[in-house]
Amino acid sequence: MPRAAAGISVTATLEAELGLALGRPVSDLERLSGGTSRETWRFVCGDRRLILRRDPETADVPDLFQSQAIDRDTERLLIALAGAVGVPVPRIEAVVPHGYVMECLAGETIPRRILRDPALAEARTKLAGECGRALAGLQTLAPDRLPPLPRLDVPSQIAAWRDLLDRLGEARPVFELAMTWLEDHRPAPLPEVLVHGDFRLGNLMIGPFGLVGVLDWELAHLGDPAEDLGWLCVRSWRFGAPEPVAGVGRRVDLLAAFGGGVDAARLAYFEVFGTLRWGMICLIQVYTHLSSARRSLELAAIGRRVSETEYDLLNLIGSGAG
Where are the domains of the chain? Predict the structure, then answer.
């Protein structure tokens, strides 16, 4: 079947399934970009625009991501729990075959628009603080209140990355240096908390007055309280803007809004950790392309960013991060 015809067939089938599950006709179904291991679709039901999150028919993501991604029911429960403690998230509307439906928030997710659109100027001034408060709220959810989640501490992730480099036969001296640095400078462990896992521009919905919603929870896990904070400060997620927190704010404002428990040194450590993590992700993406498991110009291009993360790691470590 030609690709266009197959796409029409999938859309028609999904519209029929959604209409049956929701009890009302569904139209204007379109797939959106984003999501590591789960599909996102927007559609109209009655007079409302809604979002469908569903599992793909075939796993089309690298094994490392697939093994770490939580299932859709866990993702849905986490979103509901986060909303209950005041974290801005989409409201869950219904459970449907192979996924769930949530409200469609109004706002912007494209990072370069968030960083440059005059209509979002006020939001940019608030964003570092709002992110700190959202992450603080997230961590009020005690682990024993949560559904089962992966536990990902620093040593286990470094071990997995070393094993991956060995299996790929990749000589990456800067990555090895960063891993050794992280082992030598690891701060005292803190009690594990809920970690979003991909808290950055692109997964945040921003409206004219600030943060509207935290999206894409599929990499959530239990880990260090500073992990999401450090990830938000990784230079790649500033998209060319100068400020260290998502390109729009200062670290001191992020930490002040977060409210304690994480100091500047711990944040700097997890900025190094996050930069290495992104570098490993870039490497995984390009090998996924080269292995023919998933041929993609986008994945091939992401592979070129490995060198960017190496440059960033050398700068961070050389400046005495942590």
Answer: 3-153+189-262
